[in-house]
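Tutorial handout. Part one gives the primary structure; part two gives the three-dimensional structure as tokens.
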Amino acid sequence: MAEMSAKEQAELRKLKAQRRMATATLIAMGAFTAAMFAVDVERVNALGDISNLFYLSGAGIVGAYMGTSVWMSKK
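Part two.
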């Protein structure tokens, strides 16, 4: 197998980091959702505005990763 150039290695590291970030975001969103079932209702109501922002930003990260992955595969 031929050696990869420095540019290809850098691109591979970037793609791996993006995938890890999207995976960690999905895991965090799942854990946060599961934790909401174990918390009192008053605290859930208090966290309502923050949780909306958390889910929107998480969905943005995962959506951007998926979109760029599809876009790069079609290049």
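Part three, for discussion. The mean pLDDT is 90. DSSP finds three helices and no strands in the chain.
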